[in-house]
Amino acid sequence: MSRVTAPSGPNAAERRRVRVARGPSRPHGGSRASHPAPRPSAGWTPWLYLAPALLVLGGLLVYPVYQLGLISVLEYTQAQVSGGRPTSFRGLDNYTELFSDDQFWQVLLATVGFAAACVVSTLAVGCALAVLLTRVRALPRLALMLAALGAWATPAITGSTVWLFLFDPDFGPVNRLLGLGDHSWTYGRYSAFLLVLLEVVWCSFPFVMVTVYAGIRAVPSEVLEAAALDGASHWRIWRSVLAPMLRPILVVVTVQSVIWDFKVFTQIYVMTGGGGIAGQNLVLNVYAYQKAFASSQYSLGSAIGVVMLLILLAVTLGYLRLLRRQGEEL
Amino acid sequence: MNLSVRLVGFTALAAALATACAPQTSGTSSSAKDDKSGTLRVWLFQEVDNRPKQQVVDAVLAGFEKAHQDTEVSVEYIPVETRAQRIKAAFNDPKSAPDVIEYGNTDTAGYVRDGGLLDVTREFDAWSEAADTDPTARRSVTVDGRVYGAPYFVGVRALYYRTDVFEELGLAVPTSRAELISTAKRIRAAKPHLYGLAVGGAYTYGALPFLWADGGELAIGEEGSYASALDSPAARKGIKAYTSLFGDDNCPAAKCAGMNGNDTVTAFASGKAAMAIGGDFSHAAVEAGKVRGKYAVVPLPGVKPGSIAPAFAGGNNIGVLKSTSHRTLAVDLMKRLASKKTQGELFDAMGFLPTFTDVRRQAAAKEPFVKPFVDTLAAGTRFVPASPAWAQIDSSLVLPTMFQEIVSGKKDVAAASEDAARKMNDAFGAAG
C-alpha cells in the first residue's frame, strides 16, 4: 500500500517547499537584515528540534529502504516467507538475473520514454492553463479551476476506469463521436501508451497549473506591464520574464512530476490490464509488482525497487546540481 | 540549500519505496499438538450464489460436532479473487491460520513447497471411499508420491454452441477440430456481429486442449525434473491451431487477444458469440444470460473426427494446514467435507462435478446437462505439471504472453513457443 499513499507525502513536503522558495522572490520593501545571526556553537539544539522529524523519517523511510535492500540480496519467495524453505543469501545474483533479462531493459526504456512524455505534456498543459487562468474573467476562471480540482480529486483508479470506458471499443462514446467503429485503443502498444498518457496528464496537470498560477500571481504587475509596454508578445513575456522568475516553482513541479510519472502504477495496471497484450505496456513499477507480488518473487521485486530508487535519486540530485551550477537559488 | 537537496532526496526515497516488507520467516515444523477438543477453523471459497453450498456444509458440520464432544467449527467463506493473498497470509501467520482450507488444484505443488499443507497420505490411503477417486483427481492432490488433501470437485470445459444460430445457418455440430474451425469462420462470415468461436489470448485452460489434442505436452519428465515441451513440433501444431482462431474471420485479435476465460463465457452468455469453451461451472452464468434455452453443450472435438480433445481437469481440493493443532479432528473434518455423500449433495446444490467415479455416474443420470462434461472426463483429462514452478509460470503469464505475441503478430509460433519454453525451464530450474 505504500505505493498508493506515498505521493501524498512528497506532495505535502514540496508544497511546503514552494512557500519557502517563494519567500525571497517577493519584494519586502526595506529591511534586508533578515539574515540570522552567526551560530558558531549551535551544539545539539538543532538536533533536538529535528529529532521528531528524524524519528519519523527513520521509522518510515530509512528502515523500509534498509529492508528493501536486504531482501534484494536474499533468495526470498513465498516458500521462504511461510517457512517451507530456508532463506539464503544470494549476493548480487538477483541483480545479475535482472540485468541479464532483456525484458527488464525494454521495460526500463519504455518507462523512461513514457515518463518523459508525461512530464513534458503535464508541464506544457499545466503552464499553458495557468497563463490562461490569469487572462480570463472570473467566471471561466472559476469553471476551469473547478474542473481541474475535480480531476485532481478523482482517485486514480476511478479516473482510469472512466477513461477506459470512454475509449471502450463497444460502448465508449469517443469511438462513436469520432466514428471509429469498434477500434480498440488498448491493442496497439503506442495507442495504449497514448491513452494512459492522456489520463496521467489529466490527473496531474492541476497540481502544476495551481502552483504555477499562484506563482504568476505573486509576480509584481509592474514587471509584466513594463514588458507589455516594450511590446513583448505573450510568448516572449512567458519565456523572458515569467519563466525565469518562476524558476524555483518550475523546478519543484518538474522534480515532482518526474518522480510521480516515473513510478506511475495505477493507470497502467488498470487501463492495460496489468501490462497490456503480451506485457507490451509494462512500466517498472508494474513490472516490479508482477515480479514481487503476482509471482511471489519478493527478492527480484525488491531488486527492481532498489534500481528505481537509485535512478530517481540520481535524476533528482543531478537536476538540482545542474541548477546550482547555474547559480540559481532554489 | 544543502538541506533542501537532502529534503528532495528524501522525497525521492519515499517515492521509490515500493516493495518493502520485512524478511521474516514463520515456523517450519508442523504443530506438535493434537488437541481432541476446541474450535476448528475452516476456509471455503465464496461462490457466486453461496447459499446452497452453505446449507450442504452446515449439515456436514452439524454431524461433525455431534460426533466429537466439545468441538466447534467456525467456517469462513473467502472471496475467490483474494484467495491467494489470504492463503499466503495464513501460511505466514500460523496463529491466525485456519485448520482446514479449500484450494484450487493447480496450487497444490506450490502450497506444498511453501510448507503450508499437511501430508495426509496415511489417512487418505486408509479411507474406504478413496478407492473410487478418479485417477486425475488423485493426481491433483499428489506431490512426489505423497497426498496433501482430498479432491472436492472437478471442473472441466466443453464446447457451448448456439442451437438457434446453427439451425438458421443449417450447420452441423462439429465433430473434429478442422470442422470446428471452419464452422466458426462460416458463422462469422454469415453473421459479422458474432464471434464464431470466442477465444481469448489469456484463456490458458481453453487453449490447452488444442495443444494436447495434437499430442503436445506442457512439459515432459517427472516430478522434480520437468522440461518444457512447448516448443516441440506437436505442441506447436496445437498452438498454431488455437491462434489461427484469432483474426477478423473469427475473433478479431484487437478484441480477443486480451480476453480471459470469463470474458469468452460472458461474450457467449450475452449473445455475442456463436460458440465458446466453457466449464460445467459456467452453466449458471450462461443460464442467467440472454442465450438461455438457445444453446447446447458437446465435448470439445479432437483432431480425429469423433474424438474428444483432452480437457484440463480443474477443480478444488480440501486440505489440512500443517500448522493445525487439531490434526486428528482436522483430517476427519476434511474427509467429511469431501465424502461421497457430501459431494453428491454438493452436486445437487451447486452442480459441482463429484471426484468419485461412481458418484459422478449417478449425477450424470440425474442431470442431462452434465453429460458432455462427464463424457469429456471419461475420454481422459490432463493436468498441469505437478511442480511448484507451475504456480509461478501461471502467475507470470508465460502462456498468455506466448499466445498474445503470436496473435498480435509480434512473433511467429516458433519464436514465441521457444521463448515461453525457456521461461518455463527457468522456473522449473529455480523450483528445483
UniProtKB/TrEMBL annotation, chain A:
Annotated compartments: Cell membrane
Segments traversing the membrane: 47-66, 104-132, 144-167, 187-216, 237-260, 266-288, 300-320
Keywords, ordered alphabetically: Cell membrane, Membrane, Transmembrane, Transmembrane helix, Transport
Region Disordered, annotated ranges: 1-39
Domain ABC transmembrane type-1: 108-319
Membrane topology: Multi-pass membrane protein
SUPFAM superfamilies, sorted: MetI-like
Main location: membrane
Coiled-coil blocks: none
Pfam family, one: BPD_transp_1
Protein family per UniProt: Belongs to the binding-protein-dependent transport system permease family.
Name under which the protein is recorded: Sugar ABC transporter permease
Organism annotation: Streptomyces tricolor
UniProtKB/TrEMBL annotation, chain B:
Pfam families xrefs: SBP_bac_1
UniProt keyword terms in alphabetical order: Signal, Transport
Keyword Endoplasmic reticulum applies: no
Record bears the keyword Signal: yes
Position of the signal peptide: 1-20
Family to which the UniProt record says this protein belongs: Belongs to the bacterial solute-binding protein 1 family.
Identification of the protein by name: Extracellular solute-binding protein
Gene source species: Streptomyces tricolor
